[in-house]
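Lab channel / #folding
Pinned by the channel admin:
"Please post every new chain as: sequence first, then the structure tokens as a reply. Keep commentary short and put observations after the output so the thread stays searchable."

First post following the new format, from NK:
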Amino acid sequence: MNNMHNFNPGPAALPDEVKRRAKEEGFNIDNGNLSIMEYSHRSKEYEAIHFGTQEKIKQILKVPDNFDILFLQGGASLQFAMIPMNFLTPGKKAGYVLSGSWSEKAYEEALRCGESYVYASSAEKQYRSIPNIYSWEPNENTAYFHLTSNNTIYGTQWYQYPQHHHDLPVCIDMSSDIFSRPIDWSKVDFIYAGAQKNAGPAGVTIVIVKKEWLESANDNIPKIMSYRTHQQKNSLYHTPPTFSVFIMGLMMDWIIDQGGVDKLHERNAQKANLIYSLMDQSDHFYLPHAEKHSRSMMNITFRLPSVELEQLFLTRAMDEGFLGLKGHRSVGGCRISLYNAVTTESTKILTEYMANFRQQHTC
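Reply from TO:
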């Protein structure tokens, strides 16, 4: 598989070092005969992994002491429902920023739970950009604001979050760019992310929530849907996805070894610049969907001059060992996902393929 280059949008690439350690350590915990999947989630062996991974996340993201880190299941999609169930109480409303398909889904779930409104949207621009918001100006009785930091389908990303004031909580879906850059905790009260892009394999969802806000959460919901249930039980209320948490812990070790999110941010910017520079110099052969000021470093979505050329581009790319370049089924086209584990070397090899393909198919 050394000639394969994994650009899958999620589940995404894992670093070779993480896969090696998973194979060597995950099936031989403490030099025993059991894999981590066979240990009780109440055992000291698993608890060391569980709480150790939480501490590593706190270290890497510089999570303040007044936040709790939870491990849940159900991906971001379950969080779309859990957030309003916990915090959208009667008489309140929630403000949602629409910047792509996943923010739309979050908003739709909130509407099922209570009164919600679109605070801002770039839908009329086909989600080519991030809405221009400099500070939050809430509607009356707003319970919280919600935005999606990176939009995998449309290839846009927030570079600066709106200014945090009015003492209103801000929730951010960071599923596709968590651990790719630092977080300004002064502008955030609640973040969540499925692990399967930058933090490990599918199966575990990271939630980081301000303790003070959690104290006001609605208790009149099923216990399994309550954040306070999972907080009080240290994310061990029921059996967690133990193997996914184990791999996530290895991912945290890898991130630390890379120099942390600051270094990864530099590397991710360099990778994205390689692709975008080639596209901008291609005389519109490669057409990014996102406007320049909103371009994502994680997901680069683009079109070619014709659908036929796109199909040929994707077919030949697969033959050359490039995986996961097909655009999302809802929009078509092509997509390059540059998550943390995608190497600069693979990115350079892809740009060489793209340059050669353009040369072969332009007059």
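NK: The first helix runs from residue 16 to 25.
TO: also worth noting, The chain is about 35% helix and 15% strand.
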